[in-house]
Structures are given as structure tokens and as C-alpha cells.
Please model this.
Amino acid sequence: MVFIEAPNVAQQTIKIPQLVLDQCAADGLPFSGNAAGKNGTDLAGAPDGPNLPPTTFTAKGIVALIFTIIAALLGMATVVWFAQEQLPPAVKAEPKM
Model:
């Protein structure tokens, strides 16, 4: 975490490149103030950020889940299939009596 002890000194010594200011002006974004372009803690009009994910399964999620289950079942079936193959005679264990 970075703590700025003297924000006024930082504002006087750190200069924003002109390219960044030009890009903000071209996009219609404020380049002074806080996240909303206002002073202090007034964040009215600031971007909210990403929306919350849906609380239910979507169609894409259901399809992805189905294909994941199919892949898992095929993988387990392959392991069982290879385990059922006959071992060479030299490797077979003798039954104990």
C-alpha cells in the first residue's frame, strides 16, 4: 500500500504527460479532480464498475457444464478401460493359497 504524505508536493512535482491529457480530452473524460471529476469525496457520476454476475445458470453455463460432465465421464471410462486390459504373463501375480 502506498501512502502519500504530502499530496500537494506530489501534485507540484509529478507531471502528467501531455499525451494522457490529450487522450482524456478526446474521450470526454475529466483529467482533474477525483474519479468523477469533482472535488473531495463527491463521487456523484463516477463509474460504478462491472455488474454483478447472474445468480442463475445461463444457457452458455449449462452447455459448458454438460460438456464438462461428458469430458469427465469419458476420462473416467478411459481409465477403467485401460485398467481392464490383460497384463502380460510375466507381470501377472500368482494367487496366494
About this structure: DSSP finds three helices and no strands in the chain. The longest helix spans residues 59-84.
